[in-house]
């Protein structure tokens, strides 16, 4: 047992085991002997190049600013219980959330589908709104500081947070924050603001959707250079979340989405656009109404009434394309001959377009996502992929036939989105 593990802080917080280490400290699993509950304890690391005078300032400021998140009360922010000074350095006692981080989920599973990312973004946006109303800027929002505890999303590690009115200790040349997730104005030396937290939220959502942050490069300087000089990339896997992510990644802070606008776009992405128009009646009712109308006027309209009945009965089905035959409007099931494309029995993934609405996104997960295709297939076209690991998104499960490791997947409902995380099966001997 290390010397730290034998420590009891403030005569009540007993360190049990190390959970992990970060750039600015070590996190321990602890136990509050007074209240008999598990806690997390963060031991803050003091920068090595600080003078003794600056170390005293660092301790005092850390004690003051670490207390700031303790006033925040929302399920989406980790609760701070106490801050103590022990052995001449500050320790932050917090709620223990034993759950994987978003970074771990991305590393293990690759890019997440928009329908999973949307509620994560909504809860993080609510957490930032609570913090910003209290005058607190997080300054280090990134996937490793987001815990996923079932349906609960928890923003943690306010170690770099800054409250309004507090003097900054950061010296020129001391970069604070994570380069891949820091806002461009902060990287350029400007003060962190709520708008810079919203940029970091956009970069975090981008990483969740694409498997990597938007400006990540091989080293810190290359990342900062890309952040300063290159336009923000458009996410390829965001679907309805694209306006949210691109709006948060607006480089000009004054044009960046506010809390209210980001929330509105998220709600629209999750529920679809609002419409004040009345919904049209179902196709069957429209056809009945057409028949009634035609029946009432058949005596005077003659052949024209027959044409009206035929035209209205087709409403709601797929409109025929110019020059196509009548079979072009049949349902996909009527067109399917049931035969698998060549190679489907041995490939990791095969997709064949039943209709011209078969849109697919296929990528290879890894440290950087390798996008194989992002396209809408023409009717009857097939694509085959033999990579051992794949992520695939089928945007309309009724428009595509899908084979995974030789097994045909059942069709879905029109407009239903399906996401596959695939591993190639080895044939049994």
TrEMBL record:
Domain Protein kinase: 13-270
GO molecular function: ATP binding; protein serine/threonine kinase activity
Positions contributing to ATP binding: 42
UniProt keyword list: ATP-binding, Kinase, Membrane, Nucleotide-binding, Transferase, Transmembrane, Transmembrane helix
Keyword Nucleotide-binding carried by entry: yes
The EC number(s) this enzyme carries: 2.7.11.1
Family of the protein in this entry: Belongs to the protein kinase superfamily. NEK Ser/Thr protein kinase family. NIMA subfamily.
Protein name per its UniProtKB record: non-specific serine/threonine protein kinase
UniProt source species: Actinomadura rubrobrunea
